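Predict the 3D structure for this chain.
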Amino acid sequence: MSDEFAPERERRERGTDMSNMKYMTLSDRIQSARKQAGLTQKELADRVGISQTAVHKLECGRSQSSRKTVSIALTCGVDPVWLETGRGDMSYSPSVYSQDGQLKTAQVAAEDGGRYLALPTTARVPLLTWKEAGGGEFGSPLREPSTWIAVAPRIGKNTFAMRISGDTMAPEFTEGDIILVDPDIPVDHNRFVVVRPKPGDEATFKQLIVDGGVRYLKPLNIRYPLVEIGPEAEFRGVIVGKFKEY
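Done. Predicted structure below.
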């Protein structure tokens, strides 16, 4: 009679120490990465945006793939290619730039699973709430965020992500979309910006219009009015990209 629990028992007996890495399965690598990062299954699930059950299934081998392997790798601080395939080193450097300032490239596992793309080395950016983006001293270091977004394009070192709420920027930007915000790009006419209109206000996302020296925030949804802003407005950054999740 076959032993249906043999694979799981073999995995426990083999362990997940560094000397056995070449024999590790995807489930072994995910569990090893999570434990190295000091995270519980629930903490990893919350940071990546999946259920704890999904993490459990990955770690026990009941799920053999995931669209979130890159995000899991970045959250745990390990190399995405190693996590997906077992190739290369477990350790990962989050820098996307070499010493001469050129973008590094690597075979990075795409998050749809199964395909590999020659992309810039995967980086991660913090996902902020609108309250966080509008609070504190603008330009000051961010607190350690609980959620990160995996990205691969050329991005500035201070870029962060935000999830859109509401319909003021529809139809181009809809609720749930994730925007990438670079605080180091100068704001200018027609740019999409994240801005705090007045001290104490929550940050907002609009298109900046400059007309005759007067600055306005323009919603793309024609149901909402144009709003004039004064010199006290503080800009958090310029939108450089958008992700849509389905």
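Confidence is low (pLDDT under 50) at residues 1-19, 93-121, 138-142.
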